[in-house]
Write a structure and sequence with these properties.
The chain is mainly α and 86 residues long. The chain contains 5 helices and no strands. The longest helix is centred in the first third of the chain and has 12 residues. It starts with 12 loop residues before the first helix and ends in a 19-residue tail after the last helix.
Length: 86
């Protein structure tokens, strides 16, 4: 199962996808607009993928940490993986 069923602070992937679809039509069209593979933006929904996460956050007009507080600090820097469990 790609998405954990545990409670998380991160935005739910389906909520993010719905917001993107409302703005640009589809995750694939968002990827095409930025010249990346659609797998980049899809992967960003379930695991840290800096390029995809930034594309999605910019599309929605929100900072990275508001969508993925477990992966990004308030200044937009990636939280190191070894600190994710803390």
């Amino acid at each position: 199962m790609p998405y954990s069923t545990c409670r998380t602070k991160n935005a739910h992937p389906e909520d993010v996808k719905a917001a993107v679809r409302k703005k640009v039509g589809s995750m694939a069209s968002l990827a095409r607009c930025h010249g990346v593979s659609d797998s980049v933006v899809r992967a960003a929904l379930i695991r840290p993928q800096p390029t995809g996460n930034k594309i999605i956050a910019d599309c929605l007009g929100v900072p990275l940490h508001s969508l993925w507080p477990e992966w990004y600090s308030e200044d937009g820097r990636r939280i190191p993986p070894n600190r994710l469990a803390e």
